[in-house]
Amino acid sequence: MGSCVFPVFIGLILLQIQKISECYKMEVTPDSGTIVTFSKKEGQGLDCSACKDEDLSQTCNSILKLTEARPTNVTFNCSQPGDIFTVEVNQQIDCSTSGCSIIAVHPDSTRFLEFSRTFTWDLKVQAGRMFQLEFPSPGMRQIKPSESCPDKHTYTIITYQRAGPATIGSFCGNGTISRIQVLYRGRVTLEVPKGTDLNPSNFKVSMGPAATALVEVDVKLSRGPSSADFFTPNYPTGYYNVDKIKWNFAVQPMNNFTVYFRQYTAPECQKNTVMCDYALGDKTSFTMAPTDIQPTNKQGDFSLTLTNCDAKRGEKVPGLSLNFNVEVFRSGTPYVCTVDLRNEEGLSLQIENKNPESYCEMSLNSVMQEKIVVPAGTKADLSFLDCPVQDLQLTATKVIDCPSVSARDISGTLLTIPALDSSLPVPLHQFTWLLRVQDQGTVDLMSPKGSLHQSVPDKQCNERVSLVISETEGSNIGLFCSAAEGAVQKIQIKGNVSITVTPNNTKDLSQEKEPFLKFGTSPEITENVIYTVYPLISGPAYLATPNWPDGMNSSSSVSWIIYIPQEYTAELMFSNIVKPTCDSGHTEVTVGPLDSQGQTQTWREDQSFPSPIIQQQSFYLNMSNCEPKSGRFAVLSKISLQKESKKFLGIILAVFGVLLLLIIIALIVVCVIRKRKNKSNANRSSIFIPRGKNVLPGNATFPKSRADNESHVYASIDDSTMYGHLDKNQPAEVDSGAWSNGHQVDGYRSFTGPTDSIPAATDSSAEYSLDRREGDVFQPFLDPATTFNLPRPRTPLISQGSLRFEDRRMMDNTLNTFKGAGDINAIRLSADESRLQPQMDSDSDSYPEQEYDEAM
User: Deepest of 234, 390, 475, 651, by most Cβ within 10 A of its Cβ?
Assistant: First the structure.
């Protein structure tokens, strides 16, 4: 017997230890004015109770109520009290003594998560007034009592009247009810199951206006096709009191409504009847019976007031019960069209309303849509109701699978906007091509005519459209336009490419028929982007890094291959530079010639970039980004061309100008000298030497012609002089014809005219000096050894046009002209042309003065 008692005792101890280990303990601190109650569910955990630890004792019961706002230890003698107990958190709001301001109700969302929770608010206002509940957008939605809310948060509103409590209804979130007003006093309940996070609606409580009905509900009906259900109090049991229930409906403009009574249970009226009073706007009102057809296809705001009769009560006697529905639909006639994309491979459409305040309704295959998307290769019916064209935006996307590199089309493929259905009421605002390459290839983009121009702040695009070129991963390459004065001939991008066309000076892209770009494929490149650039002679070319000015992607690179025309040099300037702080690696900028024979220059982010950089031949510019720690890497460059010959042109022109000037000066000097020489030969035809000082006449011309004067008559002629050329024995210097020179000679006679009128010549005339000086030694113009003893005047040469000209063939003729008066004096004419210059007697004593009678 003793041996059996000990094991039993041990078992009781273990059982007690197990019970102690199964206890659940928590600390609860109620808010001020809040009552927390733990209640045991019916038929659950008969041996489990809730205990409150006090000073020296512990109180346990199936219901535990905490009212004081202080920490309290609550112990449950079971391990899972949430399966057995529920928690109710009650708060009382009394506005009966003083008008209470708006109170926002925010239940604690973190407490008692392991229990099923019920939050209750007891509301009380002054007699004859209504308490008001305002729900934040999007409002509340009324449901049947048997239904449950999707978010497991169910609200219930109860009113306490003299005839007893009445349930206004059950509600969920995300509805059309914005406000509920209830007579005098009532309760709002929120039920949340165990393990569900609390997401309260944070409704507001305030004292409303004077009572006009038992309940007044404000509803904001949704725009477009929608439907909402409403129920009378105590649905479906019924309501017996003679009270009014009112619903105020706000209907959006350009919408119609229709009221349907879905389920109606009439009470047994002892007095009066059940009536439905409608008010449309401010002027129209009418009354209908519940059994009549309710308003259909009406516009504007309206209200419905349901008035109950004095109904008979009883267990099997039904009360007033009504479930009605309000449907809203758009007024007007929609525009309908059909879009067929089955014949255009890879093309899809998107239509979006950009004005949320408009009353536009769009439908795709009779289903209302906020944004219409017509997939590629499908056919769809579209409808537009009250949709202004300026509020709609149509975009199109075309996916093109590029051929493999081995099978690429060398000539390239043109990118043109395909023809869209003309029935579409919306202009095309944007068009996008998605170019997908295979085998890790590269997309080559070129302009179908001219070259591409990258739009930068210093030189923006002003063409009709702009092209946004991006990588499909989202990195923007840049904004380009197809300009005749562009410098970018080709853009090579590694991987897939997105090209978006946006209008600048046009409203509908579907009217653009010309191709925008030409593309092809090539093998994979090492850089992310490579530009082929031919700078313009007319102006600078701007080169911006990808995603300018936001900066290049991390660890990405870009290159520009720049071709310089012959006889030109390039000036490269970095006009705008933003450098990052690198976390790993470095940013690098490299400039080098294409032929790999010149010097390559490289700079990093911690070095200054020289500017300008002069390049004599075609070169490349490469930029690579690091992994930035902070900042970004963005560079804007500018290339200007200068002709090489320009720097030598000034020197050449200067030298040529100097030479030309010297030539002109030399010509002028020569002309002046010859002119003076010719003038001296022409004017100094004779010399008159009186016994006084020498006189050189300025113009020794004859006033008469040869036929009228006797200038050719001589007093005597020396036969040896005139006919010496016929004598072979004559010396050479005499017979050479030095004086006759083969010309007809005149006779000579002494001068008999007046002599006093001839002015005396002065010795100061330097103009007619014929002396030549070598150093300081004076020499006469002619050597005296080759002249006569007495200097004589020379006969000037006569031009062939003169009447005094004689042909040289007269040298064989003999002229004998004799005059009777005067002595014979032999005269010899020299043929030496240099001796025909007039000679003057020198001041030397070795040349005595001579006197002549007549000057020719």
Answer: 234
